[in-house]
Amino acid sequence: DTAVSQTPKYLVTQMGNDKSIKCEQNLGHDTMYWYKQDSKKFLKIMFSYNNKELIINETVPNRFSPKSPDKAHLNLHINSLELGDSAVYFCASSQDGVGLAINKQYFGPGTRLTVT
Amino acid sequence: GENVEQHPSTLSVQEGDSAVIKCTYSDSASNYFPWYKQELGKRPQLIIDIRSNVGEKKDQRIAVTLNKTAKHFSLHITETQPEDSAVYFCAASRWGNLIFGKGTKLSVKP
Q1: Is B96 helix (H, G, I), strand (E, B) or coil?
Q2: Cα distance from B45 to chain A (closest Cα, Å)?
Q3: How far B22 CA lies from chain A's nearest CA (Å)?
Q4: What mean pLDDT comes out for the span A9-19?
Q5: Based on the number of CB atoms within 10 Å of its own CB, is A49 exposed (0-12), middle (13-18) or buried (19 or more)?
Q6: B87 in contact with A at a CB cutoff of 8 Å?
Q7: Residues of chain B contacting residue A3, judged by C-beta atoms under 8 Å apart
Q8: How many Cβ atoms are within 10 Å of A83's Cβ, its own excluded?
Q9: What's the confidence (pLDDT) of residue B2?
Q10: pLDDT at residue B69, rounded to an integer
Q11: Which residues of A touch B (CB under 8 A)?
Q12: What percentage of chain A carries pLDDT values higher than 90?
């Protein structure tokens, strides 16, 4: 029984394309997140989202957009893909909402995106 | 915003020795400090965490200490085993978003 799942696991695409990564959690958590892990293994927050608030890291290009059809899902849409978007993208979720300060975050298995 | 520094970037120990990884943070309002272990090709896994109202927490061979005054926290692994080899990340949080250190690659030699 997977807690946080992502699809696809691998995604290879060409520059300029638009792609989506899906994330689902069955933990009943309130908040979901997207992180980017670059080639140097550095983990950086991209978005956090609950049913009330979307917080966007100001360094994230507006080509990236999170979309949440319901509380258990947070998908990541990327437009006009660039070479520099190649990375591993991790979804995560936590019980407490943003603003309640303290969260235990659980990560999905990651999606390795390669842009050629 | 918050900035987390982590040292060392690589650490090699003999099996059975102890390993210590140190992190400092910049935002005095941060109040939650988790540690994650990431094996090659896998997801980061939460191994231990500490909140700002606690100075130390232990779970079997793993312990974390927090010095709020100095704004630093450390991960201690005792009696290291080869399966402890991985990249370890510290993080700090105030409003939910985790700000990660750059990671420490721990190698435990049998």
Answers
A1: coil
A2: 7
A3: 17
A4: 97
A5: buried
A6: yes
A7: none
A8: 9
A9: 87
A10: 94
A11: 31, 33, 35, 40-45, 48, 55, 57, 90, 94, 96-110
A12: 66
